[in-house]
Amino acid sequence: MVSRAARVWLPALTLLGVLVVAVTRAARPLTNPDTYFHLRFGAEFLAGWSLRDPGSVSSSATRDWLPTQWLPQVLMAAIEDRTGLPGVAWLSGLQLVVLVLAVAWVCRRRADPVVVAVLTALVLWACWPALSMRPQVLSYAFMALAVHAWWQAALTGARPWLLVPLTWLWAMWHGMWPFALVVGAVGLLAATLHRGVRARELPRQAVVLLACAVAAALTPVGPALYAAVLTVAGRGRFFGEWAAPDFTSPTGTALILLAAPALLVVLRRGAPWPTVLFLGLGLGLALYSNRTLPLAAVTLAPVTALALQSLIPGEPTAPSRRETRWGLGAAAAALAVLAVLVPRTSAETPVRAAWVDDRLSALPAGTTVLNDWGDGGYVMWAHPQLDLVMHGYGDTFTTEELERNTSILGLDRGWQDLVRETGAEVAFLRTDHRLTAALEDAGWRVVATSDEVELLEAPSGW
Predict the structure, then answer these.
(1) Are 204 and 45 in contact (CB under 8 A)?
(2) Distance CA 180, CA 238 (A)
(3) Which residues contact 16 (CB under 8 A, 6 or more apart)?
């Protein structure tokens, strides 16, 4: 009785609990500011922006740029147009459920259900701060599938052709798509070092990787997509998600719990080259930045699944049809419940002061508004007639413009001159922001205020 509970019911209930947590996460108001600039950009693409020569939503952002996540932006905007914000929240839940299923499926190919359930929960924990309505969430699922496919290719000599259309889709979905090529390179190296793969299979696998690289250049954006993603990391110093990870945080703790068993088993018992190299890739991603921590989690999960399974006597059981049907049925049920919940839970906007929409809507078209990063996404979506100084889509700003914004928010020497250069006539800021207090001290008049936000007007002659 206890054995059956441990082998069957405990993993099933744990995975169900993970899906419940995912649905609960999605069934909330959409508070991440990035969600809203994605909606705005999607609306612009639907209205006629060119994918190869898009415009800008702000005169303070003048960099030539190319979209790296236009497909989900268009999808989000189309869904919001038909169903409102609840539909976008449901899409967020769909991404989370796909992530859970992908991680569980990859780990199940290497371990018994009880191991899979625990690791899937750990991955969700490690990814938690990044789980919002942003296209990058599906990148984590794609990463898990790419790791699995190239790992199997390294062991068996198979040619993972399905990764070619996956890479093509990924290249339209999010800027993390180059990791499809990174994982492929690691897989080829693992196959080269692993004695089980015949030498004649390696060139054929290399052709698959080359086809993935070509597929990324065949999206509507074209080959210029490569140049677009290469510039992202160099601008990371302006954004917290590119900072070094903190392993004392809850997310860092989850990564340690994911990595430690695999590392200990490999060091103590040894492992084939594919296991060693994908463990190294996961650890490298964990150390690189906050942005790559979720990628590290989904890379380490199958490695740790294999390591933990090696401590359990006997071979792992093969997934049964009943088990697969149960997992897919639970996921479908979770999404159905989410569809019922979101109209009641996810219609609110992140800025709820009663006067905000009326005041901002009354501003003349083209009014330059000084703001901070946080609420810029929402304002640019809800009030597209305004010309914002800042928003979170850093690709559209030059380095000099990012430095200007950082100096203004930090009240660096000469910040008032930088504000004047923007031509801002009003400011919309958080009430407790130090820039708000500094503007008041400089003579800006408070037009409307609440516990959350303030609207200020520049003094005459500013």
Answers:
(1) no
(2) 26
(3) 330
Query: Which residue in 341, 328, 346 sits closest to 16, CA to CA?
Result: 328
What is the separation of C-alpha 274 from the centre of its chain, rounded to a whole number of angstroms?
A: 27
- Token pair 């509507």: residue: 220
The SS3 assignment for 157 reads coil
For residue 163, the number of C-alpha atoms closer than 13 Å in the C-beta half-sphere is 35
- Those residues with Cβ within 8 angstroms of residue 263's Cβ, 6 or more apart along the chain or in another chain: 279, 283
Q: CA 439 to CA 450: how far, in whole Å?
A: 17
For residue 1, pLDDT over 50 is answered with no
Structure tokens at 357: 């929409």
Q: How far apart are CA 328 and CA 359, in angstroms?
A: 47
Give the model's confidence band at 462: pLDDT under 50 very low, under 70 low, under 90 confident, else very high: confident
What's the burial of 450, exposed, middle or buried (CB within 10 Å: 0-12/13-18/19+)? Answer: middle
- For 193-210, the DSSP string reads H-TTS-TTHHHHHHHHHH
- The DSSP H or E segment spanning 165 is helix 163-173
pLDDT digits (tens, 9 = 90+) for 84-142: 999 999 999 999 999 999 999 999 999 999 999 999 999 999 999 999 999 999 999 99
Measured in degrees and rounded to the nearest 5, phi and psi for residue 174 equal -160, 155
Per the DSSP assignment, residues forming a β-bridge with 456 are 427, 446
Residue at token pair 């018994």: 112
Burial class of 225 by CB neighbour count within 10 A (0 to 12, 13 to 18, 19+) = buried
Rounded Cα–Cα distance for residues 183 and 282 (Å): 10
CA distances (Å), origin 110, targets 99, 161, 279, 308 = 18, 21, 15, 9
pTM (global) more than 0.85: yes
Amino acid at 30: L
- Exposed, middle or buried, 264 (CB in 10 Å: 0-12/13-18/19+)? exposed
pLDDT in tens, 295-339: 999 999 999 999 999 998 877 788 888 889 999 999 999 999 999
pLDDT digits (tens, 9 = 90+) for 270-291: 999 999 999 999 999 999 989 9
Amino acid in the structure at residue 78: A
Residue with tokens 């500011």: 33
pLDDT (tens digit, 9 = 90+) per residue, 152-166? 999 998 999 999 999
CA–chain centroid gap for 400, Å, is: 26
Question: How confident is the model over 255-266, as a mean pLDDT?
Answer: 95
